[in-house]
Amino acid sequence: MEKEKEDEERVSSPDSTVSSVSGKRLERSGSGNTGSRTISDEDEEDGPGGSCSRKKLRLTKEQSAVLEDCFRAHSTLNPHQKQALAAQLGLRPRQVEVWFQNRRARTKLKQTEVDCEYLKRWCERLTDENKRLQKEVAELRALKAATSSPAIPPPASMTTLAMCPSCQRVSNSSKGPSLFTGNSAMATTSATTVKANSKPAALSNYCQFFPIAAGSNQNMWTSTNALHTRELF
DNA sequence: TGTTATGGTTCGGTTACCTCA
DNA sequence: TATGAGGTAACCGAACCATAA
Description:
three-stranded antiparallel sheet, 3 strands, DNA-binding, sequence-specific DNA binding, HD-ZIP_N, DNA-binding transcription factor activity, RNA polymerase II-specific, transcription
């Protein structure tokens, strides 16, 4: 590894990079020549092992497109593929390797942002739902106190709830199967359906209690530990 | 068979460079 | 013209794995 890096530093392959940099600059500058100094000039002046310790070399659109295609096919490369791709693009294998490393990092970062946004929205929805349910509970308790009657068993049409203490998610046991096995004495309410969105695959590591079905009537969590449930009241 | 050294790869974090507003 | 922000190529160190001695 160290040896490879040393080799890379010693051999700074101007051939593979001069064209890319100048090409990219021409594309971006619009006029084609802004009078700015090009990397090719630097390469000629500094040469391999010159004073410039690190050269920033833009890839051309064509090179990027090919790399993107390969990345879509597989996000990692074996040594043979790396060599072949480098030869095809006129780059050093190390450049191809670095490009794939950075590309993987970008992909992961983007996915993390998407996941984060999704969880944020989901949390907001649950918060709203929680507020609404608490209000409903207060109303029912007030009603019960007003009638001052003994405990009335809930009508069959009412819904049984359970909530996961770790993520505060509510299970609706009257709407299809639930993996919750929390016992008895569940509270009752008239409107309890928490709509479940389809879950992004990448979120699977975040919360085991995520709804696994998009249908609003399938509030089924994939918890492997149903004891996480508790009574709502 | 278990241990150790070595080489290769990937990843997370960081730096340095380039472009543009 | 100077400058700050954003994008990204390149680097570094750590961790992991496979293989040979």
